[in-house]
Fold this sequence. Notes:
By secondary structure, the protein is of the alpha/beta class. The chain is 40% helix and 10% strand. It folds into two domains: 2-138 and 224-255, Rossmann fold (3-Layer(aba) Sandwich), CATH 3.40.50; 139-221, no CATH class. Strand 1, helix 1 and strand 2 form a beta-alpha-beta unit.
Amino acid sequence: MTKVALLVTGKLEALGLAECLGRVFPQAEFHVDMRLDGFTTSRVRNLGATRVPGLVDKLAAALVAAVDPGRDARRSDLAVAIDDLEVANLDQPEVVVEAFRDAVARHLYARWPSSARREAAAERVRGRASFHVLAPMTEAYFFGADDTLRAASVTAIPDLAPGVDLEAFTVVDAPFLAAPVDSAEWARPDRARHPKRYLKYLTGSAYRETQEGLAALKALDARALVQRSTNQLLFLRALLADIADGVDDNSLAFVDPCHPATRLGARVLRNA
């Protein structure tokens, strides 16, 4: 059985993403290897050859270690780092992916001064390690099915832009949008594009990642969701296509098209 390590940046994903992906790929064994701080909560800039390690560098180093941990540790067959794209970076996924890819390259260069050892590690990373984003965040996908929303304790009918791709999440709910800024926990300037804030509103602020969110993630059928959403959810499709390739699953031909920023095509990583 292929062992797939997940490196995630949120409590919700740490608790439920391995189970969610395990339902799509029952022939693989998923486990959360580590939860780290995300690097996308604010506007991402690629700092190039920075000498000051940041959150992106810590996540990159952890991903490399998952597939090349050294002699005495057990390596995973595949490792996938996953972060939310967040509203702040919806228009620049390529910058986010480039920043992470460059952080991995920096780490490989700094970690192994021997060119032969470095290239061995780099080859392992190209074959076994990936980076993916969920857009704008995991909660967006809950709006793809009524049963998933019910699991999140949503009883009201959501009012999203007609036909909107959930990865371009857009709320048109007039009372939600009309509330004065800071008049409620969810009343923030970015609320129209922010699924977590909308879940707070729809549940009367009862939504919690580790409870209602976890229940929704456990109810989420990612395979069915991409089947229903033709030519949408390109980031989620890229994640599923990458894992399918890594575990030799040929049953997911329907995942195309994938997002060009995160589809398979190795440079430093399997998909970047």
